[in-house]
């Protein structure tokens, strides 16, 4: 049976282009208290349909309380401002109001990479570290989260840097890897070009690599020849859920 939420057990939800995943998170340790529950992202993924999928996930856990939601776009004060890999009808939607209205729970929304980064800084590979840290999530798109001495600079959107006439995520996302059938070695050398570009611009101390590729880190790490330290996300692909839950608690 699903655990009853307390202030320290909060639901985190990660909205992606193909799946919407949620779990209850112990906010003190950053550990998942339940298995992840995943539903397919509805098609079309318009705001109301996605809102109902989120409601179904909350109901699955028999949960009542604040809800943290990571969303794959620029999110400013709960409003969605871009839609690269999601339905265009999201642009200018007040997602915080929409999700709270449909679910009947107080919902708090932030960019998905910012959520994953918050989890790594609070509980994972960036814990207790100062300096400039980049979290890079690699999936359908490339998400970035930038932290200076543990403080998030939100909505950095550096997957949209221009590379070879297009945005970087068209060149080196995981979707690009599968689309053109790159080996891990080939993809790793593309990703190295991207990280070198970020390093030239920002001189970070550490890169944390998250998203699905974090589990394959050992297959491409030899291609990464940058100066900064580079590590896989400790929370692997749970980071988005954990960080969203932590964000909801911060916003209470
Ligand atoms: C979006 C970002 C998002 C990233 C990962 C990009 O296309 O612009 O907001 O963080 O994908 O989902």
Please, could you describe this protein's structure?
It is a single chain. The chain has 8 helices and 15 strands. Helix 3 (112-123) crosses helix 8. It is α/β, with parallel strands linked by helices. Residues 72-74, 82, 84-85, 111-113, 137, 139, 141, 143, 157, 159, 169 line the site of beta-D-glucopyranose.
Short structural summary:
The chain has 252 residues and is of the alpha/beta class. Helix content is 33%, strand content 26%.
For the biggest sheet, the summary is: 6 strands, mixed
Query: What is the percentage of strand-forming residues?
Result: 25-35%
**Unreliable spans:** none
Bound molecules: beta-D-glucopyranose
Write the layout of secondary structure elements.
Blueprint: E1 9-15, E2 19-26, E3 31-32, E4 37-40, H1 47-60, E5 67-71, E6 75-76, E7 79-80, H2 95-103, E8 107-111, H3 112-123, E9 132-138, E10 142-148, E11 151-153, E12 162-163, E13 166-167, H4 168-172, H5 174-179, H6 184-202, E14 206-210, H7 217-220, E15 229-232, H8 239-251
Parallel strand pairs: 1-5, 5-8, 9-14, 14-15
Antiparallel strand pairs: 1-2, 2-3, 2-4, 6-7, 9-10, 10-11, 12-13
Helix pairs in contact: 1-2, 3-8
Task: From the structure above, extract its key features.
252 residues; alpha/beta; Nucleotidyltransferase, domain 5; 2 domains; six-stranded mixed β-sheet; five-stranded mixed β-sheet; 8 helices; 33% helix; globular; binds beta-D-glucopyranose
